[in-house]
Structures are given as C-alpha cells and as structure tokens.
Amino acid sequence: MNLMTRVLRRAFWIICKFLPVKKNKIVFQSYYGRGYGDNPKYIAEALYKKGNNIDFVWVVNGIEDPNLPSYFRPVLFRGFHYIYEMSTAKIWVDNSRKEFCIKKRNQYYMQTWHGGFTLKKIEKSVEAELESNYVRQAKLDAKLTDVMLSNCTELTDIYRKDFWYENGEILECGLPRNDRLFNFTQSDVESIRRKVGIPDGVHCLLYAPTFRKDKGLKAYDLDYKGCCEALEKRFGGSWKILLRLHPNIFSKSNDLKLDGEYVINASYYPDIQELYVVSDLLITDYSSVIFDFMLLDRPAFLYANDISDYMQDRGFYISLSDLPFPLSENNAEMISTLENFDRKEYDIGLENFRKEQKFFDNGSASESAAEWILNHMK
Question: What angle do CA 166, 170, 172 make, to 5 degrees?
Fold first, then answer.
C-alpha cells in the first residue's frame, strides 16, 4: 500500500467517525479476509439461528468463497466500503490483529484470536523477534479490544502476560470453532469428505505443521509414503495424508512436490475444524492445532526435525516432554512410532493432561459468545 493510499484511507476513517452506528450491524473478519472460517464463522452461525434482525457483514479479500452464506453482505478488505461498514457497525468480530482503524465509544470489539492453548511462545514473549509494524499493530488491537475468548486457564494467563491485554474482559467459555468437534453427524462427515476429495473407504491422517520464521518449506520433509504404509500396518485399511500448511504460508503448498497417491493438498480448505472431523489421526510440530484435535479423543503425534533451531527462534511455554503426544525427530522415528502406537497408554496420558490444564471447551462456546454480543447490541 503506497503512502497516498494510506493517507486517503486514514482520512476516510476520520470522516466516517462522524457517521452514526447501526445497532444491528456486525462486521466479521477471519485472517484478513482469507475465507469463511475459524471462530467468527461459528459465532455468526449461532447468531443467525437466533434471528434478531442482524445485518451480517463478512470481510473478503477479493477471492469468491462459495461457502459464504447468502445472509452475509461481503465487503472487500481495506477498501473504502470496508471502512464505512466498520465505522457504522455496532460489533466487530475478528480472529487476527487489526490494522489502523478508529473505534467509537459505542462500538464493541470481540477478539477471538486464531489459536487456543499454545505450545510456542507468541506476541510479547517474542517481541524482539517480531516486526516493529506488527508490534504496533498488536498493541493497538489490544487497546481496542473489549473481550477475548479463552479455552483454558493457561491461555487466559497468556492473554494477560503476552497480549498487551492486562485488564480487559476474558470470556472463559472455550473456542467457538471447537463446537464443531462436539456437534457433527455422519452425514456431515460424508459431505466434508466429498468436498475435500477423499475417496470412499480411505482413512485420513491430517498433517498440519506451523510456519517457520523464514516461511521456508525445509522443515516439511515428512515421509508421506512411509507414514501411509506404517498406518496400514498398524491400523489396517487404506490411508491418505491431508496436508494443511499454516495460513501464513498456505499458498506455498503449491511449491511442494506431492504424490497424489498418498497426499491431498488441503491447505486451501477454509475450515480446519472440518478437516479434524474427517481425520483419524493428526501429525503436527509446534502448532496449537493439536490441542483442538485432542478434543476428539483421537491419536495425535508430534514430528519436529528442527527443535533446537525453533527453540532459539521462539521457545515454548511448556516442554515437549510434558505433553501426552508421542514425539519423533526424524522419519525413521515417526514411522516406528506409528507402527508401535500404544492406544491405551496414549489415552491415559491425554486424560491426565486435559485435567491438569483445565480446558473449557464443551460444545457451547458459540452460544456464549453470541449471548455476549446480543447483550452489547442493546
């Protein structure tokens, strides 16, 4: 964005400051308009079921999303119409940090964030490693926020320590996106499988690693063929791997040479919760996705071939050895771990971990968030 465009946009924000707020309007945004998904999606659906004559606006990035429900009015991210909608909405719902904007006293901002209980250190705890523009943006976002959503006591503490959010309200209700993991039918599973392109009768392992500081692809060397063969040996049946790269680098999945016999590129699929639902197992590295997936009581594994490098870059809130998920540092270990997986031992460790960390997710987070919004729209 050039200087002139920035100046014009900021001037328009100031002009729109004098426009009246429409009490029934809500602007939803996920990953800067990337698609219809994550926490904002599930909050919107809960609100829609309640009626209340709400004017639903969804922020898009210019790429048509066929999954966006017809009751939304799409608005292009960063455009002047976007500024108008934001300036006249009663509620903002977002899962990422906002860029420059002006919030009025009678407007409310729900920051749902896009992670939950987290392994890797984030925000203020790695401030020195972040770009200065992002830090300014994050501090502004925290200042504007009226409420955040938490799925466990540890995440609440992280919000207080590392999100520049010391005194604002935190709704400890779980994460709305995880409601999907408590509420789905076999018909839902079959529908998602068709959309993803999973052949009938094939089992799935979801591989969803996080991004690296350099946003390179070197760390993603998982042996897809070897893992599929190990899964067939341990669990039986035919297997495929769903690859889901982090939203920061999902477009780079096109640069990976993927053998269609073993891998389906699901990086562009808009809702990772639906990928959880159709996956029998998960492999990740340092991503918080593992703490969402575990709510399904299905096996999850860690594959991390660059732990020392990542420790120097980010570091962890909790040691990898304190997690209930089997850890492998190379492909030989990963294949052996899959072949010799002990489900009974895993289940015991998982149950103990969930009790220790006090997770709030129970399938009703969307309802709690929707009620908060309705109470603040009055």
Answer: 140
